[in-house]
Amino acid sequence: MTAMPSSRVWSLAPDPDDARRWHDRLGAAGLAEDSLTHEEDEVLWLVTAFAPYLAMLAVRDPERLRVAAADPYLRREKPKARMAAELAEVLDGVRDAPDLTARLRAYRAREYIRLGARECGLGRPEEVGHELAHLADVALDAALAFHDRELARTVGEPIYLADDGTQRRAGLCVFGMGKLGGEELNFSSDIDVIYVYDSDNGAAGKLTLHQYFTQLARRLGQAIGEVTEDGAVFRVDLRLRPEGTVGPLVNSLPSVERYYESWGRPWERQAWLKARPAAGSLALGDEVLAVLEPFIYPRATSADVVRDVNELNRKIKAELAPGTLHTGFDVKTGVGGIREVEFFVQALQLVHAGKNRALRERSTRGVLDRLFFAGLVNEREARALRDGYELLRQVEHRLQLESGRQTQRLPTDLRALGVLARRLGFADAAELATRVERTAGEIAAIFATLGAEKPYRPEVATLVDPEAPLAKAGDALAALGFRDTEAAAGPLASLRRRLASGGAPATRIAPAILEELAASPDPDQALRMAVDFLQRAGAGIWGLLDENRPLLRLLATLFGTSAFLAKDLASHPELLDALLLAGRAGPRRTHAEIEAAVAARTGGERGEEELWNGLRRVQKEEILRIGLADVAGELPLEEVLTELSALADVCVARTFDLVQASAERRGPVPPLAVLGLGKLGAGELGYASDLDVIFVYDGDEWAHEAATKIAQRLTWALGAVLEEGRLYQVDTRLRPSGQKGTLVSSLEAWRAYHRSSAQLWERQALIKCRAVAGDPALGRLVEAEAARFAYAEDLSPPVVAAAIRTMRDRIEKEIAREGPTRTDLKAGRGGLIDIEFAAQFLQLAHGAQVPALRVRATRPALDAARAAGLLGEAAHATLGSGYRFLRTIENRLRIVHDRPIHEYPRDPVELDRLARRTGYPSAGALDRAYLAWTEDVRSVYESLLGAAGSR
Length: 951
Fold this sequence. Notes:
Layout: H1 16-28, H2 38-50, H3 52-60, H4 63-70, H5 80-91, H6 97-122, H7 125-155, E1 159-161, E2 167-169, E3 172-176, H8 178-181, E4 190-197, E5 202-204, E6 207-208, H9 209-225, E7 235-237, E8 250-252, H10 253-263, H11 266-272, E9 276-280, H12 282-296, H13 305-320, H14 338-352, H15 364-373, H16 379-403, H17 414-423, H18 429-447, H19 458-464, H20 473-479, H21 485-500, H22 503-518, H23 523-536, H24 541-547, H25 549-561, H26 563-571, H27 576-585, H28 591-602, H29 608-631, H30 637-664, E10 672-676, H31 678-682, E11 691-697, H32 701-719, E12 730-731, E13 744-746, H33 747-756, H34 760-766, E14 770-774, H35 776-790, H36 797-816, H37 832-846, H38 858-867, H39 873-897, H40 908-917, H41 923-949
Parallel strand pairs: 4-7, 4-8, 11-12, 11-13
Antiparallel strand pairs: 1-2, 1-5, 3-4, 3-9, 5-6, 10-11, 10-14
Helix pairs in contact: 1-2, 1-3, 2-3, 2-4, 2-6, 3-6, 4-6, 5-7, 6-7, 7-9, 10-12, 13-14, 14-15, 14-18, 15-16, 16-18, 17-18, 19-20, 19-22, 20-21, 21-23, 22-24, 22-25, 23-25, 23-26, 25-26, 27-29, 28-29, 28-30, 29-30, 30-32, 34-35, 36-37, 36-41, 37-38, 37-41, 38-39, 39-41, 40-41
């Protein structure tokens, strides 16, 4: 992605002499510098300058560096399934246990060089943690499968008698605990595991099942954890198992259930928060988690939970002597270290996750996002913990890449500390020490608030005091993080007046309101939206907020995060019920559940306006649900797009039914189909997206007028701004002949147009054609006809490539209009349209011969092209991951700005906020990622269409 300095520019290395030594050793080992590709030179630079441990692995076998550099996933996260497939190839033909041991370590070393390069500049830290955990998963799974086969061949298959009386093969589940379970592994982590097998009611030949699985677990531990001349794959730690080091190595499901039911201790509950079936029988793993759910997540918790977490933290620190910045600060167990971030979020999980299923998340980063949007931490706390966790984890990784040892202590030697600082991008040791000290202080201060009432800052009391002159409020507002203190004065005065009229509950809640607004991502916006909301909310709002402080924090976060969601909530405070329901019911709804909600609001005897407003109310509630889950990290991008598309489908279908029913009362109507195109047709709808639709009816001339009236009425009903707002803006310009054509087309006229007059871009649009409402049989017929026209035999790759390139160039020139002050993430260079057009080129050029390409959505089209051999692994990874990256930014911009927006921000403040909302530590990090992704996307686009056009 980003070009690194040449490996020959040694003065730029954090430790030039050390980097040169490793470079020379690699040359002596057979890595000829003159023959290196650009990627190999880049990896060489990263491992020699930033990760001596990886350089040592490469010296042992220089081919590892070449393989890592050629890996399509050098610059993006490798899927777990891909790792498993690669390891299966490495292990193909494995002869015996020693051979397995050697091959596992060889694959691990190869992957470590790739992952180390990603850690040192080519990837995101959380992705590397995921991949390290997945590497452990696939190694455990492969070793377990091998030894299970060998042991069963020797002693007999392990068979048990199930509850239903049938005999079944017993299996073993390897639970990943700690950082393995949370998919946040380090380069030198132990892997904490627990082994559980199905039942003791059976045997394996002459062995009991306990004996069988004990032997299997020992063999697995040796295969993964035994230190050979090539090291270990991962060191295996079994101390978290029932009864710890004195307990059995393996336990059956019934014995596990009895143990935790009778003897499970608070720290074991805490440990199981991260438990994940990592290898072996994953179905058994799911069963174990279901059985242990009442233990891990009890509905009622003791008030001593926080005390227990604090006590465990105290003991760990006492045992490990975490040190200070001057005596070797331990970034894991030190005061304000990684452990305190983990324990802080786990304490809140232990208290609240029993009733709030959304908090049942294994990764520390993921839990932080969910605590933030559950109202249990404010944005300032979440940001401090998230940023601090990222920094300290990065320090931990770089320490471990220095020597390959499991260490978390900062060097006490100033020169060594300076080298570490430069490897992390700091100017010198002093800058790193200052940053770590500030970070640790912020984390420790937040950790200290567990179980304690946090005092309000003095500026808060000044601002909520109705007697304090507003003229002196500017300094206090600035101290709290407000940027435009003059503009904030007006809303502050309104807030004071509203509080003054709210009685005792308002007086009690006043400081908390301002504190939470100030802690939101955008205090200025949050204050404006809060005032709008409170002016419309009833008098009971004060008591509700007083009794439910997490709700207050959630509202403040929402007001400061998303103008798109906050505007609706401020205009319609009654949506607060939907907000509360969304938090309790979870982030997902089925199509049938959305249909039921719509039917409940639009059924029975209602006036027309009541029908349309009822439909709008459901839509707002559902978008609020989806948006909350999106911002909280509970729904991945793909599910957000699917949920928004399903909501649009239901709204369009219900609106059509109501419009058609009204038309039928006045006379006969023809069969009419509403077809979605664009993102609606593909099921990839975003926030505030227009709906691209066309209308096709079946009938003679008499039907045209009736069909036109229904289409016009439908368009009005979807787009009219009523008391509850608008449903969707409808765009019908993709109909035959565009704006010059009639709004509706007869089936025969539509067919005739696409047979004789349609241009290639219109065939391109038909790729997405999907029936969303109206007559089902006609809709299916038009879908089939659209596919036939789109994937006609007469298209050749050069013709398609030339037409698409011409259209793409025009869009970039006339719509994107990029320059020094403007960047368009959709229409600009390397933007979404590059990816969509690349996929559609492959579909149009090859869809006639490859039926698997005839899909509507972009990501499945890319997957099909890869499977068909039309798109290489690296190109597929670039386009697929680039699409996800750009759509994520687009969704974040839309949810923040309350309008469709494709312009990538250039204002530093806005860019920094966008970075935090998309998981990047800074504006610079996001900017570098954006430039790298768009450059890579454009390169693949040019390669695909340029190569086709030249044939």
